[in-house]
Design brief:
With 64 residues, the chain is mainly α. 88% of the residues lie in helices and 0% in strands. The chain contains three helices and no strands.
Length: 64
């Protein structure tokens, strides 16, 4: 692997750890609900498509 790719992956790993910390501060019942939904759908719809759905919902809520 190239150094640049290694750096990108390391940054993504660090961001994932921060996201995990942030997730622990949210309503855990809501987190568990979304996690179960994700588990139900990710093998057939894929992570990227599910992520796009959640971002779309978040963006539409932010506009209100």
């Amino acid at each position: 692997m190239s150094d640049e790719k290694d750096n990108v992956l390391a940054e993504m790993d660090a961001a994932a750890k921060e996201a995990e910390k942030d997730l622990s501060t949210l309503d855990q019942a809501a987190v568990e609900t979304v996690a179960r939904w994700w588990l139900k759908w990710y093998t057939t719809a894929g992570h990227k498509r599910l992520g796009r759905l959640l971002v779309k919902i978040a963006k539409s809520g932010a506009k209100k």
